[in-house]
Prior knowledge:
The structure holds two protein chains of two kinds.
Chain A (H helix, E strand, L loop, with lengths): L7 E2 L10 H7 L17 H21 L6 E4 L2 H15 L6 E4 L5 H12 L3 E4 L10 H7 L4 E5 L13 H10 L3 E5 L18 E5 L10 E5 L27 H36 L5 E3 L10 E6 L4 H7 L3 E2 L15 H5 L4 H5 L2 E4 L6 H21 L6
Helix pairs in contact in A: 1-7, 2-7, 3-4, 7-11
Chain B lengths: L6 H9 L12 E7 L2 E10 L2 E10 L2 H14 L5 H4 L3 H7 L7 H20 L9
Antiparallel strand pairs in B: 1-2, 2-3
Amino acid sequence: MSNIAEMVYLDYAASTPADPRVVDVMTPLFGAGGDFANPSSGHTAGRRSSAHVERAAGQLAELLGCKEEQLVWTSGATESDNLAIVGAARYRADRGRHLITMPTEHKAVADVFHVLEKRGFEVSWLRPDDTGVLDPANLEAAIRPDTQLVSIMQVNNETGVIQDIEALGALCRERDVLFHVDAAQSVGKLPLALASLPVDLLSTTAHKVYGPKGIGALYIADRPGCHVEPLIYGGGQQGGRRPGTLAVPLIAGFGEAARIARCEMQENHEHLRSLRERLWSGIRDLDGIVRNGSDSHSFPGILNVSIEDVEGESLLLALEPLCVATGSACNSTSQEPSSVLRALGRSDLLAQSAIRFSFGRPTTSAEVDLAVARYREAVARLRDIAPGRAA
Amino acid sequence: MTADPYGKRVRELFARPDHAGDLEKPSARVQIDDQGVRIALAVQCDGDIIDRLRFRVWGCPHALAAAEAVCREFEGRPVSALQAFSANEIMQTLPVPREKLGRILILEDAVRSLGQGARVSPDAGEDTD
Lengths: 391, 129
């Protein structure tokens, strides 16, 4: 692999680098001279470690607009999604076994529902419109007396499409159905006030918001009927909801990342918007180009485009040294066209040509200009090599 | 570190497809569209010798690299070599994953068809430069 300095990283939806301020907070917590002790220990060293966890919980709670005791630390969004969905489905299984989600969800959600289908739960898969947005009326029509859980992501990881979680959650609340939101792509990037939102469970992770990998959180609302059964047992930490020794340095880093995100959110939002518009303006005139997702309901850090008559895998290679994604990074080894884009009505060929550009705090205008030039050049070269379709 | 799915050879062939293009008056031409790849080949012969080979590909980097490798390999060889071409020759020299074998077999079909066409073409051997 070439030197990192030679790359142009435009894959911030897959992961972000830890902010130097985050690293500064974490580093002293690993070694013998720092607060390395088990935060569950009652002695002085343990209490010092515990203070870091409490501070981080406060920082994350402030970002989310919730109470500290409503947060459960996990290893990341995938675990949070699993705990929320499996835990809630199990807890309410005696009330009903009908669940609702969408085919455009991240694998960390969709695959969990597939497993639950095999274990006797019935799942309704709601399709979005051709821009990726779910009409709340479709959810309202799908909720049944035995429905127990609805899971809809806030910002789609491939297209950046934003769902109206307030309207969707309100429908769930009216019918006493739990509402889970995968917010891996939105926490720290869009304002959230969970205390006033009809959301029961919300998954998040640190590494999408300039925190460390390996730490996430699940928000659990404190209202009757909202509870998750644990997926693992032993130790009793976090009220038994997710036992295990807490990863203090990672948690402290997540807290600092949350603090920074809250303070700089508006500034970052404007930065990302200008970069996305710069990129789209530079390529939108290409023949056969299609923007995947909604123009009006989308997070500005992501631009997903498909293009006719260009093969996706060759396009990705021709784009080097740009580091971009053909779909979900977690699924990037698959040659299958994106299920998200197919749900938006894209043909297999068009879905297979999709490239996701995602921007971050460090992204510069010069990098975006290079991406524009590289994309135009790659498309022209591959089209020049391709034969015409046989008559 | 995740292994490079292409390797140095595929990357070199993909970056420098010197034989991509067309021939004005080919001795034979063939195009196949199957298995997620579209391959066009054209050959110009000088007697029984392959003078020039050109390709066009819509497909993955391995398919594109394989087509370029075939063109480089066969120029200057007898036309009969095209009909004897086997996908194994490519699989032994390029790191093509097993799941893409079908695409290399499409290239094999195209190369053999091209060889057959060149042998029966009345234009074979005509100098078009």
